[in-house]
Write a structure and sequence with these properties.
By secondary structure, the protein is mostly helical. The chain is built from 8 helices and 3 strands; from the N terminus they run αααααααββαβ. Strands 1-2-3 form a 3-stranded mixed β-sheet, with helices on one face.
């Protein structure tokens, strides 16, 4: 758990530094050349800075241990802050589309600059390295904040590649391509934001665990022949893991100690074998065996 916190904290700080650098150089070159695709890319970097800051804050809060006011810990902070990131990304996409359309309607000229190419290449290189780094971290730690950053870095590689293409075509007078690319970038940002929004929303609304994980739990239950029936199965997300509860029915002739010992052993097995489970609560009911 400690390593998970440190890894996310490090990734967010690296993201803040790199994205601030890219924001500055993209903004300067985009304004000088009046390239809407580069300005759109700069807006995207601004959103990336915000995302990295939200990742840092959300990670600090979610890493706090359970207390009297938050009995199950602070894990949902990851999803609250990823929710905020998704909203910021949507607002960014709307703003960029507006700027691109204004440029087209008012016939603003694009001034080609070799620096458009240089900045695009620098961005693609930095973002590809960040993508590989955060992708490996997500595989290791399963943190939605890192997943959001990883997808964003991946998208940026594609987005800036389009910016590079539009800059080259602009050199040959294809001005409309720059406008189209600016809008395409905005749509791409919006799609990513909606995906992140949905994933965060599902957890905040206590969506049940997926069927695959539930089946893993039932496989462990079925190994205990003493358990005759199971019902009232419930799961609640606690950050990136779940709290589950259910009722098992056992032979009523067993002593209280024996029946609850079955439940205790099963709880330990589930939490050991299934990393997605944070806490297991089992209620025991006796039934008559003929």
């Amino acid at each position: 758990m400690e390593n998970r916190y440190k890894n996310t904290n490090r990734a967010s700080m690296i993201g803040i530094i790199c994205n601030l650098f890219l924001l500055v150089i993209k903004g300067i070159i985009g304004i000088i050349s009046n390239s809407q695709s580069m300005i759109a890319d700069a807006f995207n970097s601004f959103g990336d800075v915000f995302s990295s800051i939200m990742t840092y804050i959300g990670n600090r809060i979610s890493s706090k241990a359970a207390d009297d006011d938050h009995n199950l810990g602070h894990g949902k902070a990851e999803y609250i802050y990823s929710f905020l990131i998704s909203i910021a990304m949507l607002l960014t996409s709307i703003s960029v589309i507006k700027n691109a359309l204004e440029t087209y309607l008012y016939q603003k000229e694009i001034q080609f600059s070799i620096y458009l190419l240089v900045v695009s290449i620098i961005t693609i290189t930095i973002k590809f390295i960040l993508y590989l780094y955060t992708k490996e971290l997500y595989k290791k730690d399963n943190n939605i904040l890192i997943e959001a950053n990883s997808k964003d870095h991946r998208n940026d590689c594609f987005i800036t590649s389009l910016t590079l293409i539009s800059a080259i075509l602009g050199l040959f007078g294809y001005r409309i391509i720059d406008i189209i690319v600016g809008i395409l970038i905005s749509i791409w940002i919006a799609i990513t934001a909606i995906e992140l929004f949905k994933k965060s929303y599902d957890v905040l609304m206590d969506k049940s665990m997926n069927q695959e994980t539930k089946e893993k739990v039932y496989q462990l239950i079925n190994k205990h022949e003493e358990v005759k029936r199971v019902n009232h199965f419930n799961s609640t997300p606690v950050g990136y893991r779940y709290q589950i509860s259910f009722t098992i029915f056992v032979d009523g002739s067993l002593t209280t100690f024996e029946s609850h010992d079955i439940a205790n052993k099963l709880e330990r097995e589930i939490e050991k074998e299934i990393p997605e489970i944070y806490l297991t609560v089992i209620h025991v009911n006796p039934i008559r065996i003929k």
